[in-house]
Design goal:
By secondary structure, the protein is of the alpha/beta class. It contains seven helices and twelve strands. Strands 1, 2, 3, 4, 5, 6, 7, 8, 11 and 12 form a ten-stranded mixed β-sheet that branches. Strands 9-10 form a two-stranded antiparallel sheet.
């Protein structure tokens, strides 16, 4: 059974080498790069990956579907450049592909924030569907927060964790927050959704209470508080951005 790994990138020279090394056991590596200005594509090619460059950014879902269309393996593993497959997970993936007990597999993910692994806050457990038989799944067309849509078959779950080095500094978080909020709001606005300032405020408050108290972010100490506060900001930010888009495009009163 053959395995293709697909990765979408943009200026990931700091992450890509370690990411690819963690999936060296695969048979094919597909990297779809969105006009990087650093050494991302050179690193990918030196490793042996098949590299495709896009100039126009279509959104996360369409970009991952482009990468999926270039995969040739019987199985596909989709990961991000800031994720790492541990040796334990690598062995489990190879067993899953070999025996094919299911058609798709969720993988539990552990995320690091500013150097600390976060075990609560709604971040853990964080099962993500990333391993599936080619031809039986595709990505949703969402601009952000895309998901794998399985056409048929059974889904199982692996045990070893996928390590996620998503937020090495607060600056990385704020940058992603701005990008994701705008993409989510743009998509929601195009679909006819609306928001209000009270909705934005309430969403932020509810997000903090849920992640800090009900999802036990309090047990992650000061960094857990920071994560929950930033999740509250993320919830507020996306609905506030949508509200601003609604206001901008509302008919002008005369």
């Amino acid at each position: 059974m053959t395995l293709s790994v697909i990765i979408i990138t943009k200026n990931e020279e700091a992450n890509l080498q370690a990411c690819l090394e963690s999936v060296r056991f695969a048979d094919q590596w597909v990297v779809v790069d969105s006009a990087s200005t650093d050494n991302t594509r050179a690193i990918a090619r030196a490793f042996g990956a098949e590299v495709t460059e896009t100039v126009v950014w279509p959104g996360f879902g369409p970009q991952k579907n482009l990468a999926l269309g270039l995969a040739t393996g019987e199985w596909v593993l989709s990961i991000d450049a800031d994720e790492r497959v541990t040796p334990e997970l690598a062995a489990e993936i190879q067993r899953a592909v070999l025996h094919g007990a299911a058609d798709a597999f969720e993988i539990p993910r552990l995320t690091q924030f500013c150097g600390q692994w976060i075990h609560h806050c709604g971040w853990t457990p964080d099962p993500v569907l990333r391993l599936f038989r080619r031809g039986q799944a595709r990505f949703s067309d969402d601009l952000v927060h895309e998901r794998v849509i399985l056409s048929s078959g059974a889904v199982s779950r692996l045990n070893a964790k996928l390590l996620h080095y998503s937020y090495p500094t607060p600056a990385h978080y704020w940058r992603k927050l701005e990008q994701y909020s705008l993409a989510w709001a743009t998509q929601a606005h195009a679909r006819g959704r609306s928001s209000s300032m009270p909705r934005a405020v309430i969403s932020g408050v509810v997000a903090f209470i849920k992640s800090y108290f009900f999802r036990l972010g309090i047990l992650d100490g000061s960094m857990g508080f920071a994560v929950c506060a930033m999740q509250a900001q993320a919830a507020f930010g996306k609905y506030f951005t949508l509200y601003c888009l609604n206001q901008k495009n509302a008919p002008q009163k005369t």
